[in-house]
Write a structure and sequence with these properties.
2 helices; alpha+beta; two-stranded antiparallel ribbon
Length: about 140
């Protein structure tokens, strides 16, 4: 049986050296895990449009121009997730946890204190390297 590929846009929302992360609500897929905000791309939607829509729905914020950062493809037992990560900054609004249980602004060196889904491991490692100025 061929696995479904789920395309996701995620925002690496940056401010004052910290990134915004959100905790998935109880009952959601991967409930309790922390993640970079975003969501599934809908048919006919670009990744940028998806990211803008999801960040407004989840956090009530509007972002500036998102900059592509990294694409991660991760295989779970039942599905394949293709995550398109974008660097972005809040242009309008203050983030509030509408679509997630809670939010936090964290430094890259604090990421290990939070449980993220396995699909986020590669981007977390890249962000930590970027923060300390080490080439991959």
């Amino acid at each position: 049986m061929q696995k479904t590929v789920v395309e996701v846009a995620a925002g690496l929302i940056y401010r004052d050296g910290r990134y915004l992360i959100g905790r998935r609500k109880p009952g959601a897929h991967l409930a309790g895990f922390w993640e970079f905000p975003g969501g599934k791309k809908e048919a006919g939607e670009s990744f940028t449009e998806c990211l803008r829509r999801e960040l407004f729905e989840e956090l009530r914020i509007r972002i500036g121009c998102p900059i592509p950062y990294q694409i991660v493809r991760h295989e779970y037992p039942d599905t394949i997730v293709e995550l398109h990560f974008f660097r972005c900054e809040i242009e309008q609004g203050d983030a509030v946890p509408v679509g997630c249980e809670e939010i936090r602004w964290v430094l890259p060196e604090e990421f290990q204190q939070f449980a993220f889904p396995p699909a986020d491991d590669a981007v977390i490692e890249s962000l930590r390297r970027d923060a300390i100025g080490v080439s991959p």
